Fold this sequence. Notes:
14 helices; Rossmann fold; alpha/beta; transcription cis-regulatory region binding (chains A, B); DNA-binding; transcription regulation (chains A, B); about 350 residues; six-stranded mixed beta sheet; elongated
Amino acid sequence: MKRKITLKQIAKELDVSISTVSKALRNSVEISEDTKQKVQAFAKLYNYRPNNIALSLKNRKTNTIGIIIPEIVHHFFSKVIRGVELVANQRGYNVIVGLSNESFAKEVINMEMLANGSIDGFIISLSKETLRQQDYHHFNETINQGMPIVMFDRVVNEIQCDKVIVDDFEGAKNAVDKLVNNGCNNVALITTKDYVSVGRLRTQGYIESLKNHNLELKSELILKLDDNIDYEVNLDALEKEIQQLFKANKTIDGIFAVNELYALTAMRVASRLGFNVPNDIQVVGFTDGVLSKHSTPSLSTVSQHAQLMGEKAATLLIDRLENDDDYENYQTQIIASELIERESTK
Amino acid sequence: MKRKITLKQIAKELDVSISTVSKALRNSVEISEDTKQKVQAFAKLYNYRPNNIALSLKNRKTNTIGIIIPEIVHHFFSKVIRGVELVANQRGYNVIVGLSNESFAKEVINMEMLANGSIDGFIISLSKETLRQQDYHHFNETINQGMPIVMFDRVVNEIQCDKVIVDDFEGAKNAVDKLVNNGCNNVALITTKDYVSVGRLRTQGYIESLKNHNLELKSELILKLDDNIDYEVNLDALEKEIQQLFKANKTIDGIFAVNELYALTAMRVASRLGFNVPNDIQVVGFTDGVLSKHSTPSLSTVSQHAQLMGEKAATLLIDRLENDDDYENYQTQIIASELIERESTK
DNA sequence: TTGTACGCGTTATCAA
DNA sequence: TTGATAACGCGTACAA
Lengths: 346, 346
């Protein structure tokens, strides 16, 4: 169990100085062919690789980026990570993952741990708790220390930084447009409380679409769920809420839901109540999940292009890291969502 | 945009030496109360935090662990990561994620990048290509350099290291037992080619169960799919294969599939062919996925307790990192799988 | 052509 | 009680 070999050890072994070894390995013209060959052969034999940590310290650059997400067991976020990894690796960076678990405290701690030299910059999607408390001091501190941040999906206007978002408003509007154009006159909305910005924007898209079609906005058709409840483990509660919606509004002929779980559950409840999807009720969700594709009927949804978001975020961050000349010309890139039509709409 | 503050800067500012500052911040008894207070107040004001990279270099310890997985957009692997993160964070470690994308070359490159000082140890699940080529030199090199590895799920006997696996054999046997006990006499198996060890073990569990029940092993009931094809994007091909299985064997009354996608697709094909699940055909899958729970009918599956696997793997690794006294007493921890009965079985 | 010295930020040891 | 020095591993400016 030998440790990794270092320049110093090679130097000692070959009886030359450390810097000679260093130069020889970088093929410097300063060094004679003889010595170069000798050193390079030896290094190859012992499989020498420079120590990343030493390089990071010396260069004040880690070539590592940190991504902080609220939850990793989630198709959307894991796809984003895949996109980030893809670009990061291509450009010679590693990726450290931190999970906030939707908690403000964990988000702060995670960022502080990584900000102390471990990484060159952050990619982050805010936790629900952070959005609720509206406490963004840790972002400003990080940015003030010269460490760039790229926010994605769950972003916030109060912070000046690069951002990548999906056009939640447009996406939702298109989805509802589709339902209305397909003949739905009473489109219900299943959404979340408003502090998660994406929920708010999708709700606004719904409202806008109704307005454009001169349809009355009926508040009783809007079901606002408390997304602090983990409905994934508490499906019964979700079904009950949705069932009430249907029972109180017999004329519902379309559902737009801001995520996959709500949409799927709505389909299930609807068919349990004797409705046929899509003939009686058409349903559109908002997601990049796996459930949509494999459900019966399969679910029409608004795709967010999660992997692309990750790629863009990583590109923005690395570009900024590698061009120190551009000052605070922050951009917000908007990824166009896409309505994927499946069996739950006509 | 000020850089992070360092000991040196504090020292200069307060006109004391660097080592005095260092000691004062660690509350050394060598330093007078006066100086300590002064230094600590100043450090707090400027929000001083030691630079992780410098500490890593000095201590030859990064407090970071690397996890290499074949694919992150996968419920099983993201749950494992969650488990790893949980334990790692509790014990003061960060987690770097590397994706092999099922490629041998990417696995090797990723490991080499991280092994040069970036991390203290690896948690890894082997890529399919690595398993197929049976080239494990990179693991041995890493271990010989004194960097511990913990393998999980897709492991390999040839390498001496800690391992965490699920009891694939037992889990499969129990699943098939269940089907047989529920009255199935012609249980088909949908599996993969044998180089992925977990597929092989699950196949053996199927065979064992049939043997125990004195049921004939019919090779025509075993469908071995080439899992290099991404059936997720090529669902039609998968459906066709499974449809052939059903058409060639009209007596099939049970299906055991080694993953979620195969199981779900089998259910869909079966009902399309006019069979009722579970009355005509019962189905059990093998997975921790989300699809099982939300499909109609919901799918009975063998759960692998992915998050627990991650937690155990991280614990094994960190224990080994922190106890240098235990020499090569490698353990293999087996996580008991669990048959979760849902609507696809009686 | 080779070697020395320095610095990245920190801590530990030893000297003052 | 404080400070100087060395070391972790590397690369480079400069001296020999």
